[in-house]
Structure formats: C-alpha cells, structure tokens
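Bug #77: duplicate submission created two jobs. Keeping one. Sequence:
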Amino acid sequence: MNILLTSAGRRGYLVEYFKEALQGTGEVHVGNSTPLSPVFYYGDKSVVTPLIYDEDYIPFLKRYCMENNITAIISLFDIDLYMLAKHKEEFAREGVTVIVSDPEVIEVCNDKWKTFLFCEKAGLKAPKTYCRLEDAEAAIDAGELDYPVMIKPRWGMGSIAVYQAENREELEVLAKKVKREIFQSYLKYESALDEEVCVLFQEKIKGQEYGLDVVHDLRGNHCLTVVRKKLPCAPGRQTVLRC
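Kept job's structure:
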C-alpha cells in the first residue's frame, strides 16, 4: 500500500507516523509545491507538484498515482481539501482512495460564515457573527453586540489576520488591515470568491477553550471523539493540550 501525502509542508512527524503504521508494507510519498519543503527529507519518495489552483494540479496527481501505484491520498493542508474532494470520484475510478469529506461538508467547514449559519440552523450555540462592517456596527449601536469584537478572515486558518477591536476606531482600522493581510497570504484564493464579504466580525466568547478531534471510518460513521482542554502557557510558548 503506497500513500501520497499532498501539501505536506513541514509535517515530517506525520510522515513518520504513516511509515511506522505501514511497517514496511508500502511507501509514504510526499508532495508539495516547492522543492525546499522540509518534509521531503522524511518521505520514501517526494515530488514537487503544481500549485493547488493550477489547472494541471489534479491531472498531475492522477499521473503520479498511476506511475507509483498510489492507493490512497491524504492532504495535510485545508485549502487542498475542497479541490481533492471535487475530484475524488475520478481518483476512485483509477483505484485511488482520496481520504476526504464530501465537497459540501468541506465548504461549510472552510467558510466561517457558512459554519455560523449551519450552527444557527441546527440550533447550536455560536458566537454572534456578521460578514459586513456596517452590520456589526449596527448591532453594536442596537446593543446586540459588545466590545471587544473579534475580526478575522471568513476563509481563515492558522490564526492568520485575527485581531480584537476594543472600540469603533479600532474596528474600522482593523477591518481594513485584515482584508489587506488576507490578500497578502494564501487565504486570497478562497477570499477572492467574494471580496466584499471576506472579513468576519464576531462576538468574543469568554470561557475555557477545548479542541475536539472527531474520528470516523471511511464511510462517515462516527468512531470516537477526543476532547482536549487547552491550557494557558507562558508568552512565546505553544499552547499546552491535555486530553
């Protein structure tokens, strides 16, 4: 069984996990768009791929899988997921399993505005969220939203361009700053889908933070949920997690 990890970047430790699980019964291939990727030192084989939004990205991966007897693809980068999900049936016809959720699921998870609407429709509690500055300001004026207000990319990840506004002046200045930083980063691709509403304004929630890892089988059946309590740590150090 040969596995291809796409958009692997710096995640060498994950490559080691897969190699240990295979126990010599297959190879772990790693792909990334730059030859300078640290992960290339960990894989059994490595390949420089086109950029995710390049028109040859999917055809390139198909050819590589056929030439190297790849039976499964796993992406290690959120932006890659939707692209692979849209084409997973094509890979399946070639005998390659793309381990990824359906496109509709990924679309909701990657789009924080759609996540908010999903939670609202499902009756789940969620922070008050607005996708236009004027709507957030109107909510503040009406007493429906209080400072501090969190400002973040609608299609965001990795804590890129997340700020906290304490007053209206900061709200307006930081809204422009977030949008500028979005289009200076890899978040620009999704954000280009709707530039007018690519910044979110959100109620700040106070309380203990938890992370949930949901494990399911390849048919979407729930197997296990691991809850992790996020503990505070000294400045400059990574967050400590306790399972």
